[in-house]
Amino acid sequence: MGKSIPRYLGQLDIRKSVVGLATGAGALYLLYKAIRAGLKCQPPLCSNSPICIARLAIERERHGRDSGELRRLLNSLECKQDEYTKSMILHSITRCVYLLEAEASACTNDDIKLVGDMLDDKDTSVKIQALNTLKAFSGIRKFRLKIQEHSIKVLELISTVWDTELHISGLRLLNNLPQPDYVHPQLRRVMPALMEILQSDCNLAQVQAVRLLSYLAQKSDLLYDILNCQVHSNFLNLFQSTQPGSLLFEVLVFAERLSEGQNAPHYRAVKWHYNEQSLHEALFGDESRLADRLLSLVIHPEEEVQIQACKVIVSLQCPQDLGTRATTSFHPCHSYFKSGE
């Protein structure tokens, strides 16, 4: 062969390196072409995916053009559809109301009625999606009065359908609306159901329920109904420091409003009678251990819980009317806490 073995092997190594470089360059070139082709590839404008529809609709609204998507969805809701389809249409309407402000504002009270009629559907998932859609529309001021007309129906659903998702959706809607006086009789009837939801094991539903109860506790004609509502023997567990901070804060706000309400002069002017298992006895009765729970929450790691616990303590220590008369004469306040605490 005329070549030494070491020299021959060296030439082989060089050839392998050259081939390797060529192969690597080829692979890089192919990768470049693939990436370039991918970048050039755009999804078709006729894509029916929710993301593409939403993107197209938002882009059109940004340029002052009506996408027509919300109107098409509302029109399709009028047609006979199966439960799954109705649920998906309502879900898409909800998305459009949040994303397409101009198109949502152009809707009418007839559209609100159409969505509200879905609350009578036999399928629970359709009811839930209808509640979510009404909640979305309730952010537009001109529709609030029309949506309020469905408050009694929503309260009926909350009290008769024991479904956590429905409770959350229904209560979120109610918490986004003022409750007119004509709804108060229905509110009295559903008070036990609201109290049961508050004592359930779903944090989201509990928070929504106690927010509504806190709002209602400020209505003088509903205060006694709330305070006399029956609760579980372990109701004060809601004030344990192990509860989520969001729930603790709302429960403490509720307790403060109840305390302020029962200490108001016009309420104390009447001799009220409460049943032994009532909320009043659990919070303010002679055997209540609320004071112990409040004192433990003063050192809670979340500041807003600490502050709210102190507010409840202050409201329990001194009735409102005594505080207002303190400027003219001194009246010692009856302490809710035992001496030494």
Major β-sheet profile? none
Head-to-tail CA distance between termini: 106 Å
Number of strands: 0
Low-confidence stretches: 38-48, 321-335
**Residues in β-strands, percent:** under 5%
Task: Compute the CA-based radius of gyration.
Answer: 32 Å
Q: Could you say which structural class the secondary elements and strand pairing correspond to? A: mainly alpha
Mean pLDDT: 83
- Helix-strand topology string: HHHHHHHHHHHHHHHHHHH
What's the helix count?
Answer: 19
Secondary structure: helix percent? 55-70%
Shape: elongated
Can you lay out the helices and strands and say which pair or pack?
Layout: H1 5-40, H2 50-62, H3 69-78, H4 83-99, H5 101-105, H6 109-117, H7 124-137, H8 144-148, H9 151-160, H10 164-175, H11 184-198, H12 203-216, H13 220-227, H14 245-263, H15 265-268, H16 279-284, H17 290-297, H18 303-317, H19 320-324
Helix pairs in contact: 3-4, 4-7, 7-10, 9-10, 9-11, 10-12, 11-12, 11-13, 12-14, 14-18, 17-18
Structure characterization notes:
The chain is mainly α and 341 residues long. 66% of the residues lie in helices and 0% in strands. It has 19 helices and no strands. Helix 4 runs parallel beside helix 7, helix 11 (184-198) packs antiparallel against helix 12 (203-216) and helix 17 (290-297) packs antiparallel against helix 18. It is elongated.
